[in-house]
């Protein structure tokens, strides 16, 4: 299932990120802020359970999150979305998966993976700003499932229709959230209009 989170603040901040004249500092800051804004919608249906507490005035049955939350950035660019989400879910743990696209084949090459202990029982939120062909996101979901994840959400900033279709076909059980659904991929597998190479713009590399 695809949800495009349409909010004026997200549209405003994403336009700043798309602008080729926006530098690394502002690019990173707006990515972080959009990650925080998206998390409200992404976590809307997280399960909760009752918990008995005492307010200063009376006994009270409140709620707490029923499961741990693991944020799983796809390195490198996914790292840029972690702190904005952690601000709202400070108890979240972080799983890391590292991969880069081979520039000719566009296939993801995995170079790193590390998971917290309670990963299989947790709500897993995979984050990556860019969903282009979908190869990297599909590989990350494959890896999360291979490590026992039962409940996975995928959060990207900008997606191409090709990537959305590929993820929905490979993993129909994963709810995909985007801040924007763009037009298409170009012949080099870059999203149009997109925002360029997210990893390079976050980290100031080329
Ligand atoms: C980018 C982006 C995604 C991937 C999307 O990463 O952050 O992970 O490409 O493309 P796909 O949907 O076609 O797989 P990149 O390979 O540039 O690595 P980086 O994050 O280290 O810059
Ligand atoms: N990765 C990016 O960083 N940008 C794109 O447009 C496609 C893949």
Automatic annotation (TrEMBL):
<feature type="binding site">
    <location>
        <begin position="128"/>
        <end position="136"/>
    </location>
    <ligand>
        <name>5-phospho-alpha-D-ribose 1-diphosphate</name>
    </ligand>
</feature>
<keyword id="KW-0021">Allosteric enzyme</keyword>
<dbReference type="InterPro" id="IPR000836">
    <property type="entry name" value="PRTase_dom"/>
</dbReference>
<keyword id="KW-0328">Glycosyltransferase</keyword>
<keyword id="KW-0342">GTP-binding</keyword>
<feature type="binding site">
    <location>
        <begin position="196"/>
        <end position="198"/>
    </location>
    <ligand>
        <name>uracil</name>
    </ligand>
</feature>
<comment type="pathway">
    <text>Pyrimidine metabolism; UMP biosynthesis via salvage pathway; UMP from uracil: step 1/1.</text>
</comment>
<keyword id="KW-0808">Transferase</keyword>
<dbReference type="InterPro" id="IPR005765">
    <property type="entry name" value="UPRT"/>
</dbReference>
<dbReference type="GO" id="GO:0004845">
    <property type="term" value="F:uracil phosphoribosyltransferase activity"/>
</dbReference>
<feature type="binding site">
    <location>
        <position position="191"/>
    </location>
    <ligand>
        <name>uracil</name>
    </ligand>
</feature>
<comment type="similarity">
    <text>Belongs to the UPRTase family.</text>
</comment>
<dbReference type="Pfam" id="PF14681">
    <property type="entry name" value="UPRTase"/>
</dbReference>
<feature type="binding site">
    <location>
        <position position="197"/>
    </location>
    <ligand>
        <name>5-phospho-alpha-D-ribose 1-diphosphate</name>
    </ligand>
</feature>
<feature type="domain" description="Phosphoribosyltransferase">
    <location>
        <begin position="4"/>
        <end position="205"/>
    </location>
</feature>
<dbReference type="InterPro" id="IPR029057">
    <property type="entry name" value="PRTase-like"/>
</dbReference>
<dbReference type="InterPro" id="IPR034332">
    <property type="entry name" value="Upp_B"/>
</dbReference>
<keyword id="KW-0460">Magnesium</keyword>
<protein>
    <recommendedName>
        <fullName>Uracil phosphoribosyltransferase</fullName>
        <ecNumber>2.4.2.9</ecNumber>
    </recommendedName>
</protein>
<dbReference type="InterPro" id="IPR050054">
    <property type="entry name" value="UPRTase/APRTase"/>
</dbReference>
<keyword id="KW-0547">Nucleotide-binding</keyword>
<feature type="binding site">
    <location>
        <position position="101"/>
    </location>
    <ligand>
        <name>5-phospho-alpha-D-ribose 1-diphosphate</name>
    </ligand>
</feature>
<comment type="function">
    <text>Catalyzes the conversion of uracil and 5-phospho-alpha-D-ribose 1-diphosphate (PRPP) to UMP and diphosphate.</text>
</comment>
<feature type="binding site">
    <location>
        <position position="76"/>
    </location>
    <ligand>
        <name>5-phospho-alpha-D-ribose 1-diphosphate</name>
    </ligand>
</feature>
């Amino acid at each position: 299932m695809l949800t495009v989170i349409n909010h004026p603040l997200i549209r405003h901040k994403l336009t700043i990120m798309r602008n080729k004249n926006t530098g690394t500092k502002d690019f990173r800051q707006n990515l972080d802020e959009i990650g925080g804004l998206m998390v409200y919608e992404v976590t809307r249906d997280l399960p909760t359970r009752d918990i008995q507490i005492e307010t200063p005035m009376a006994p009270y049955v409140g709620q707490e999150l029923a499961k741990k939350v693991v944020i799983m950035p796809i390195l490198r660019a996914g790292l840029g979305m972690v702190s904005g989400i952690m601000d709202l879910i400070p108890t979240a743990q972080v799983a890391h998966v590292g991969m880069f696209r081979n520039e000719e084949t566009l296939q993801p090459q995995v170079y790193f993976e590390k998971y917290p202990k309670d990963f299989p029982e947790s709500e897993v939120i995979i984050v990556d700003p860019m969903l282009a062909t979908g190869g990297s996101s599909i590989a990350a979901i494959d890896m999360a499932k291979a490590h026992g994840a039962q409940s996975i959400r995928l959060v990207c900033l900008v997606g191409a229709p090709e990537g959305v279709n590929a993820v929905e076909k490979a993993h129909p059980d994963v709810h995909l959230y985007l801040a924007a659904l763009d037009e298409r991929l170009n012949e080099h597998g870059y999203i149009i209009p997109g925002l360029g190479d997210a990893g390079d713009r976050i980290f100031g590399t080329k």
